[in-house]
Amino acid sequence: MSHHITRAVTQDEIAAYKQAGVVLLKGILSLESVNSLRRSIDLTVNKLDDSPSGYDFTKVLKATAANDVDQLRAMSDGQYDLEAIMDYVKSTGKPLLADEDSEARQGAYFIDTGVAARLDSYRQLCTHGALPEIAGELLQSGTVRFFGDQVFVKEPNTPGKTAFHQDATYFEIEGEQCCVMWVPADPVTLETGAMMYVRGSHRDGTLYKPNVFISQAPLPGSEGVDLPDIENNLDDYDIVHFDVEPGDVLVHHYRTIHGTGGNQSRYQVRRAASIRYCGDDIRFKERPWAPAQLHHTGRLNTGDPLSGTDFPVVWERAPSDAVAASAAPGAALGQLAGSQAA
């Protein structure tokens, strides 16, 4: 299956990505790519119990609230020791995050990591065609390497929020040229859990402590600046969100702070993939607290360029394009029109 880009990335979109740290690329994926993504996500959810990195966060929230140690222990044989993490979260006094009236809503919040390593059709989407080409244009890099992926599903009536966070300190890398693509398989609005971004939060280089996604509590042993309480002070920040449709792609810099609410819709599921790419300047950086990547086959040392089968080159700039890119003038900020204050 081929995954061709449906239109070129514009200079205004490149400028918006650089300045705001996030850009919406409307209608840039083909229907073929969207349908492939939907099939991949549905298959991933159906096989979630077979994945060492797959979790139903709604079950985690419920087990923690009920102090169901046996259930947490049963879910702790994969990527995370959930029993230990939830004990730690309780010790911090930080609440678990959920929308209001969560008791009345029972939808599930699924997440899985490293799906591309197990599912060939999904890996094809991640490593060939449109998405790597988009990364090459936005990163302005000579080469692009695939860095990783996650799949997120929030069913209708799912109260679980995703805490505001910064991807950079979950990733064992350093440098500037890393982008994260949020690719929806369904229409997404604020009601169903649209992504919210703190515009320009990538620019000063601050690295914030990573949290446990369903709470503001930082990961045990993590380093960085404490992230402020954005959830309860949205008006104090320059927050933008975008209503998106299948075929759209949201792309943010890996230091851009972002988060989401639950899915308050009664009927609309919210399926999406987070796919990550790195450019030439990225180097490996060991972070002992970073979530284990159980699908990786090797290990790099701090300072090493990305290499090997875990981080394949998925796009290379033609020599003539490289000359043109270096000579291209700056463009006015665009593509932020139509974004809405959250």
UniProtKB/TrEMBL annotation:
Gene3D superfamilies: q2cbj1_9rhob like domain (2.60.120.620). Pfam families: PhyH (PF05721). GO terms for molecular function: 2-oxoglutarate-dependent dioxygenase activity; iron ion binding. This is Phytanoyl-CoA dioxygenase. It comes from Methyloceanibacter stevinii. SUPFAM superfamilies: Clavaminate synthase-like. It comes from the Bacteria.
